[in-house]
Amino acid sequence: MQLCANKLDKKDFFGKSDPFLVFYRSNEDGTFTICHKTEVIKNTLNPVWQPFTIPVRALCNGDFDRTVKVDVYDWDRDGSHDFIGEFTTSYRELSRGQNQFNVYEVLNPKKKGKKKKYINSGTVTLLSFKVESEYTFVDFIRGGTQLNFTVAIDFTASNVYGKAKGVSGDAENPNCVGIEGVLEAYFQSLRTVQLYGPTNFAPVINKVANGAVEGGESGEHTQSVFRRVSDDMEQQKVKRIPCPRPIEPAVGASSSLDLTSNGSSSRSVSKTVSETSSFYSNNNLQE
Fold first, then answer.
1. DSSP type of residue 234
2. CA–CA separation, 2 and 128 (whole Å)
C-alpha cells in the first residue's frame, strides 16, 4: 500500500510540517490498537510515503468491513507530536485501489468545532494497494502437492552415515512402510552396522537431491545455499545438483536408545533441537 497527502496543516513555526501516519485497528470493545506507523517525511505539506506492508490480520483481523482509523501527525523531536487530523476507512475500501473514493479528508475535530469555515486539514490519497497471498501448508496439500518423506538415521558413536544407502537393507529400494517400518529397519541395522564417527551428512543431501532430479519436471527453478555446521566440515561438501523440486532438510538431535538383550527397545526422548532450512537448487551447483 502507498499513500500521499496534499495541503496538510502547517504545524512548525519555522517550517512546514514533518508528517507521518498512524494506522489503528478497531476492536470489538470500541478501542483502537496501533497496527502500523509510516516513516516521517520532513518539511512538507504534500508528503509521499514509501510503499509498506500490513498483514490483513493486523489491519482488520479478517473482517474486511472493520473500521480502520488513520491519524496524521506532525513529528516533533521531543516526542510531543502535533495532531493534524484523522480519517477512517476499511480493508474493503482500500482493496478497491486508486479511485475517487479513496481520497480522504483529514479532519481535526477540535478545529471543526471552533471554526465555522473549517473544511479540512488536508487530504490523503491512496496511490496503490496490492494484496499478496501467503499460502499455508494446508493450501498446498489441498492443491495436490505431493510430499516425499526421507528419513536418514545417524548411527551414534559419535554418529555416522558412511554411504547414503537404505538402512532397510536394500540399497536399490530403501522404502519403508510408515514410521513402524522405519523403526524396524533401524533396529535391524543396529545389529549389522559398526557405530563410528564423525557424522557424514552430505551423502544424505546428495542422495535426496538426486532422487528429486529423477522425479522432477523441467522448468524454471530457484536456488539457495544449504549450510550445516558439523564436526566433519572437511567432508561436508554437498554437491550442487539441478533440482526441480524444493527440498527442506530438518535436522534434529534426539533421544538415547537402548536395545535390550531380547531385541526390544526402551527409549527416552530428550529435548530436541532442530534446524530447518529451505533447500532449492537450480543450474549446475558446485562442490
1. T
2. 5
- 35/89 Cα distance (integer angstroms): 14
Q: Which CATH fold would you assign to the domain 2-128?
A: Immunoglobulin-like (2.60.40)
How far is 154 from 103, CA to CA, in rounded Å? 62
Per-residue pLDDT, 247: 57
Pairing of the two strands 82-90 and 103-105: unpaired
The whole-angstrom separation of Cα 14 and Cα 43 is 10
In this model, does residue 281 exceed pLDDT 50? no
DSSP 159-201: TB--S---TTS-SS----SHHHHHHHHHHHHHTTSPP--S---
pLDDT 10s digits, 165-177: 445 556 566 677 7
Structure confidence by residue, pLDDT tens digits, 64-115: 999 999 999 999 999 899 999 999 999 999 999 888 889 999 999 999 888 8
pLDDT at 139 over 50: yes
Q: Answer with the residue of higher pLDDT: 249 or 28.
A: 28
Residues 245, 238: Cα–Cα separation, whole Å: 17
201 closest CA partner among 152, 158, 243, 166: 152
Q: In angstroms, how far apart are the furthest CA atoms of the chain? A: 95
CA 134, 136, 137, 143 dihedral sign is: negative
Asked whether the beta carbons of 154 and 193 are under 8 A apart, the reply is no
Evaluate if residue 162 carries a pLDDT over 50. Answer: no
- What is the b/e burial string over 41-52, where b = at least 16 CB atoms within 10 angstroms of the residue's CB? beeebebebeee
